[in-house]
Input
Amino acid sequence: MITKFRIHEGAAESEFGMACQRIIPWQVPEGREDREGREEQAGREEPPFGGMACFLPAGASSDPDCHDQDEVMVILSGSGSVDLAGEKADFTTGDVVVLPRNKEHVVHNPTAQTLTWLSVYWPLHEPKRAEGAEVTA
Output
C-alpha cells in the first residue's frame, strides 16, 4: 500500500523554535484499512531512523539543540547558516549538511524568506544514558 502526504508548513507544529512536521515515522490516516479489511495501526513497526521537515521563519534562529543522534539536513529552499560547537557553515538550496551527534547546533536564517529543510536522523530514539552520564556539547 502506498502512503502519500505532502510536506507543508500548515501541517507542522512548534518545536525547537520553529515549525517542524514529523514525517518519519508517519501517521496512518484514521480509518485506513489494510487488504484484509483490518484498520491499520500507526507505528506498527518503527523505522531505524526519523525525519522531519523544518520551516525557519525569515530573520529567525532555531533554539540550540544537542542530541545523541547523527543528523543530515537537506536544504529544500532558502539559505542560511549553522553553528555547530563553535564551527560555522553557510548553506543554500540543494546543499546537504551533516551534523554529528552530541554537538550543540543552531540554524540561522538571515534572509527575508522562510528557510525549509528536511532533517533525517538516526537512531530514531536517542540511546538511553547510564545514570549520572553526561553528554558534552
User: Anything to note?
Assistant: The beta strands are 13-15, 18-24, 50-56, 70-77, 79-84, 87-92, 96-99, 105-108, 115-122. The chain has no helices and nine strands.
